[in-house]
Amino acid sequence: MKNWKRLFLSLTISAGLLASAVPAIAAPQQTSVKVNDELVAYAVGAPVNDKGITLVPLRSTLDAMDVKLTTASDDTITAIVDGKTITLQSKLTRINGVTYAPIRIVGDATGYEVRWDHTTRTVFLVSKGEAKEAFPTGGEGFMWEVESNGNTVYLVGSIHIANDNLYPLRKEFEEAFAEADYLGVEIDMSKAADAAQQQLVLSKGTYQDGTTLKEHISSETYGKLEEILKKNGAAPSALDAYKPWVVESTLASLKSAKVGYTESAGVDLYFIQKAIEQKLPIIELESYESQLSMLDGFSKELQESSLSATLDNFDVLESNVSGIVEMWKTGSDEQLLELTNSFSENEEYNKAMLIDRNIDMANKIEGYLENGKNEEYFIVVGAAHYLGDHGIVKLLQDKGYTLTRK
């Protein structure tokens, strides 16, 4: 497997940072919404699928769900459901004067099950407990269970980018999450827009000495970047301020988003949003600073070779994103192990991205297992961290734990 596929483990780190520098994504696709099998007729606005996320006119959709909207501003929604006031955090979008919100977040928060039928491009909102036809899940995915000292930890393998076709997750994921006392993630990506995080990204991801990207990579690599930027409607120098690892991830994020795969639909953010809604404590196994420092610490040679390979394969990136998503859906340990082992092609990358991080995360998971508090933890980290000789599963087994594949 070529080294440019490795970037999908860290794709979300710089995604969305350069919105002003990259060209606009293609126009959203229209879709339909049914509430308990009744088609919602929108007098103003219409549902759209934007970068893999289904957005709906907020007020009209809530009315069809028999939910009264109270306020919607500053990415905060207040509504009345069955006589009770609920508040949820969700990114709001204004389109032609109409307020839109992600339908999955709104549906989950108001007590509806959300189902997606890709063949008819229809979102079904089904009242829990109502009779309904069976909908297939988005796939098997990866989950292990481990118990010790009265504590239970569920280990979930995530993919950081996806689309609505990945959902609904199978019931075992939802049931385990429902029992959790804590959600654990690599980093809490809901904080990505915080000023402090953005400043951290800029301080590590841009040149601080007055130089530009052109002075740090070969003329051949820079020429390939210029051509791709021009083809996508951006200025050839649009990314000159940024280091190669930021440029690489930004290009991959842009390409993936154009075909509907985004970090907004990733398994990490799906459970982070649910945790925020339910006021479930979120713990971080790593930090923005540690992940960014790792990426920024890669050698000049590795950064350029990875960027060059991404540029060479830019036109087929989306098919490989699709391949990784399909791998997750199969839940195949063999395919996941093949992907994980491909990272060993470069010793520097493999040690920093997987080996060292896996050791640190396994040690923290051991701490959760042994704290004696009779708690349940739902841990979601990149799927490629689990298998192989240096994977979290084997590291925990070597410590004497028994893990059960769920």
Would you kindly provide a written description of the structure presented here, covering whatever features stand out?
The protein is of the alpha+beta class and 406 residues long. It is 37% helix and 21% strand. It contains 13 helices and 18 strands. It has a six-stranded mixed sheet, sandwiched between helices. A five-stranded antiparallel sheet has the order 1-4-5-10-9. The chain has a four-stranded mixed sheet with strand order 3-2-12-11, covered by helices on one side. A hairpin with a 2-residue loop joins strand 13 and strand 14. Helix 5 packs across helix 9. The protein is globular. The relative contact order is 0.18. Mean pLDDT is 84; it is low at 7-29.
Q: Gist?
A:
This protein is an alpha+beta fold. 37% of the residues lie in helices and 21% in strands. It has helices spanning 58-64, 103-109, 171-178, 195-205, 219-231, 244-258, 267-278, 288-296, 300-312, 317-330, 333-342, 347-369, 392-398; strands at residues 29-30, 32-35, 38-39, 48-50, 53-57, 68-73, 76-81, 84-89, 93-95, 98-102, 112-117, 122-127, 142-148, 151-158, 182-185, 282-284, 376-382, 403-405.
